């Protein structure tokens, strides 16, 4: 039986009424996305039609999922909210703090030792507040959620940007910062700007070397890393129904890479098969009773151009396998063109590593397709030219794959089976073959490939592909290898070709597991004591941020003008810094150290206006904070893209930064800034970015009149005494301005709870 089946049945019990009411209010047929959104309104049934991309709307999500790196800060915040238990079903998953190095057993043991303080904290907090806890080694959060918690037509939020993976089971699942999750844990509504809708019509059927991963690699090439911002991507059509449930999850997972709020598919037979295979026949039976409401209306899909803000059509019969990268997940290249493109751009041809797994591609089907290629190499006596690393998605996947002989196939190619955890995908990889910064190439089935993402080396060229394509390229050892036409030389000196991959959607013997890794909380956790040592380097109880004094902000200095791409990885790096995710002051020592200074094109090297000397960003900012001087961060387009980590907002706030002024924001990061009491502003005229000089001082002359839909005026004073006056836009509504006034959204929640 499924977890929280009573909650799921309750959602379905009012779905028909709410969908029908919404259809009447909106006055037209509804997409699946609209059905889920309107059936999860905080106030119940719809009373008005919301404007896409404009209206802020309060929702009531069904559940929350947190991974261990972000859960620390989320739960530290929740502890301040004054609640005895979480208001909705919530889970914590320990998957980020396990470094891949030697192999599963040794690496897990090492993580349990080095991060025991954090794991113990998370387990005790979960036990106290009624939160389900998944132990280290249980699996990657999004695969575990898909196997256990996701359900068609539901709404979920999670403190990880790839929460969107659950769209593969027909949810509207959205990545948020911890403060958003705390709102819902505390029984408050969750606010979101009503998304725009991008429809992707899929026709035909995948075959040969083309996989579900290639669908989203193609979409990423079309939309780019910011083309989906503020929108839900809804997939439909015959081609969508022809995809497996986990294949749909892969596509939704990487929707985060185009900035989409989330992605989703309508409920169909593949989802029903997956629910039943994962011991959730009760969910499948309940979903079948409201099946018509778990997909878009027929009229929508018959005339999609009338109901979506943007429409993309992809014929799966014609889709070719792709590799995306390097350094950005939207640089899409068909495999057949990679050789010429690599030569043109001088990308390293030799491939050092092939990495299979991550939350994007670690299902049973993924492993079978990759294993079918690996077995051919063994049988045809082809020795792999690259190193292999495998991260199964969950203990259930690992146990079943081991039972069915899949892991042994990879081990026959000398692959290393890492822990059921994120590992190299998030920089948790102690890469043994390279310690310097040599120019090199790796291929992986992950979702992100930003500079330094996997191994900390800015010269590692990482390319994203399907598990089977990663396997083929790693076996060949060459980036320009096209398995659809190129041959390999085996140990007998014979030329052989790899046959097309073969996959198994669901294990014929069913899934199996001895210990899935779940720990249920006490029914009454009031007696559970949560301890945080005062001298801990890993954990630190939070001190509330100071509220706004109600005055204009003047005399603010420029901390850094970031040039080009500035992701949350640049603002708050992962990798070795993950150990400090529960200690705000310690992790603030990585604040903006990856951002490129526009004036010298160097990272972590900015001018201290107090001394005229150059130093690291955190060191300079701590000097400004010591002197009580407010500061401003200036950025480029899509500032804060990538992970949902709210540390990228909390660290500057903790260190005394008051304003982030950019050309445009990624959605989650903009919300995170607002939640933490920061001013997140955009240039009314993008070219004003060029006016900002290294020694500038900023005066916000009309902040006292801070109001919705009203731009702010900024006086920029240059070192020579000259001035420029510019306008800055914002998207704060009245409740969000209250967050700012109180110093943070959490401060406001505490005040309301106290009252």
TrEMBL record:
InterPro entries: Acnase/IPM_dHydase_lsu_aba_1/3 (IPR015931), Acoase/IPM_deHydtase_lsu_aba (IPR001030), Aconitase/3IPM_dehydase_swvl (IPR015928), Aconitase/IPM_isomerase (IPR050926), Aconitase_4Fe-4S_BS (IPR018136), Aconitase_4Fe-4S_dom (IPR036008), Aconitase_dom2 (IPR015932), Aconitase_mito-like (IPR006248). Keywords: Iron, Iron-sulfur, Lyase, Metal-binding, Transit peptide, Tricarboxylic acid cycle. Residues 557-686 form the Aconitase A/isopropylmalate dehydratase small subunit swivel domain. Pfam families: Aconitase, Aconitase_C. Its EC number is 4.2.1.3. GO terms for cellular component: cytosol. Residues 35-477 form the Aconitase/3-isopropylmalate dehydratase large subunit alpha/beta/alpha domain. GO terms for biological process: tricarboxylic acid cycle. Belongs to the aconitase/IPM isomerase family. This is Aconitate hydratase A.
């Amino acid at each position: 039986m499924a977890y929280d089946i009573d909650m799921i049945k309750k959602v379905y019990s009012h779905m028909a009424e709410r969908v029908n009411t919404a259809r009447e209010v909106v006055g037209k047929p509804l997409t699946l996305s609209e059905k889920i959104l309107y059936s999860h309104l905080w106030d119940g049934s719809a009373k008005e039609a919301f404007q896409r991309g404009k209206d802020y709307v309060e929702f009531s999500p069904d559940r929350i999922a947190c991974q261990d790196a972000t859960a620390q800060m989320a739960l530290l915040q929740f502890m301040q909210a004054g609640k005895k238990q979480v208001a909705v079903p919530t889970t914590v998953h320990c998957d980020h703090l396990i470094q891949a190095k030697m192999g599963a057993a040794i690496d897990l043991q090492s993580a349990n030792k080095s991060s025991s303080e954090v794991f113990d904290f998370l387990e005790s907090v979960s036990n106290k507040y009624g939160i389900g806890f998944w132990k280290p080694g249980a699996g990657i959060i999004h695969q575990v959620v898909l196997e256990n918690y996701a359900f068609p037509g539901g709404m979920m939020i999670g403190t990880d940007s790839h929460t969107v993976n659950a769209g593969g089971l027909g949810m509207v699942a959205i990545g948020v910062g911890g403060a958003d999750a705390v709102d819902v844990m505390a029984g408050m509504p969750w606010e979101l700007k009503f998304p725009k809708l991008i429809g992707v019509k899929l026709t035909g059927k995948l075959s040969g070397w083309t996989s579900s991963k290639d669908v989203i690699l193609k979409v990423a090439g079309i939309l780019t890393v910011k083309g989906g911002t503020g929108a839900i991507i809804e997939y439909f059509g015959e081609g969508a129904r022809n995809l497996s449930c986990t294949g749909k999850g892969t596509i939704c997972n990487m929707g985060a890479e185009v900035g989409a709020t989330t992605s989703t598919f309508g409920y169909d037979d593949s989802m029903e098969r997956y629910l039943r295979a994962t011991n959730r026949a009760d969910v499948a039976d309940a979903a079948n009773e409201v099946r018509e409401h778990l997909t878009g209306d027929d009229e929508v899909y018959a005339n999609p151009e009338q109901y979506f803000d943007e429409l993309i059509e992809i014929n799966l019969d014609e889709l070719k396998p792709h590799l995306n990268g390097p350094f950005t997940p939207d640089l899409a290249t068909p495999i057949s063109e990679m050789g010429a493109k690599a030569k043109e751009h001088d990308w390293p041809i030799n491939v050092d590593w092939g990495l299979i797994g991550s939350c994007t591609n670690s299902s049973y089907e993924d492993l079978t397709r990759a294993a079918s290629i690996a077995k051919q190499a063994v049988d045809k006596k082809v020795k792999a030219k690259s190193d292999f690393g495998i991260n199964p998605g969950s203990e259930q996947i690992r146990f079943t794959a081991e039972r069915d002989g899949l892991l042994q196939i990879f081990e026959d190619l000398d692959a290393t089976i890492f822990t059921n955890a994120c590992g190299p995908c998030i920089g948790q990889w102690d890469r043994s073959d390279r310690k310097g910064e040599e120019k090199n190439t790796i291929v992986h089935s992950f979702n992100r490939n930003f500079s330094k993402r996997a191994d900390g080396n800015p010269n590692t060229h990482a390319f994203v592909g399907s598990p089977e394509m990663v396997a083929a390229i790693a076996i060949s050892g060459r980036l320009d290898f096209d398995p659809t036409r190129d041959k390999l030389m085996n140990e007998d000196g014979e030329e052989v070709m790899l046959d097309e991959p073969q996959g198994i959607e669901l294990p014929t013997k069913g899934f199996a597991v001895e210990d899935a890794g779940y720990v249920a909380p006490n029914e009454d956790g009031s007696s559970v004591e949560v301890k945080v040592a005062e001298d801990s380097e890993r954990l630190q109880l939070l001190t509330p941020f100071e509220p706004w004094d109600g005055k204009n902000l003047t005399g603010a200095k420029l901390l850094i003008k970031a040039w080009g791409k500035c992701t949350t990885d640049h603002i708050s790096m992962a990798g070795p810094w993950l150990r400090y995710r529960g200690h705000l002051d310690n992790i603030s020592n990585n604040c903006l150290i990856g951002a490129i200074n526009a004036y010298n094109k160097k990272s972590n090297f900015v001018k201290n206006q107090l001394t005229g000397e150059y130093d690291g960003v955190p060191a300079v900012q701590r000097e400004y904070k010591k002197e009580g001087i407010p500061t401003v961060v200036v950025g480029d387009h899509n500032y804060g893209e990538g992970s949902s980590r709210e540390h990228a907002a909390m660290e500057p706030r903790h260190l005394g930064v008051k304003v982030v002024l950019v050309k445009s924001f990624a959605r989650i990061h903009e919300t995170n800034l607002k939640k933490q009491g920061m001013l997140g502003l955009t240039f009314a005229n993008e070219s004003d970015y060029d006016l900002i000089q290294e020694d500038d001082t900023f005066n916000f002359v009309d902040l006292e009149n801070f109001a919705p839909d009203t731009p702010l005026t900024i006086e920029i004073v240059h070192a020579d005494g000259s001035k420029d006056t510019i306008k800055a836009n914002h998207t704060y509504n009245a409740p969000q301005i209250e967050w700012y006034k109180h110093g943070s959204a959490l401060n406001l929640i505490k005040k309301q709870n106290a009252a």
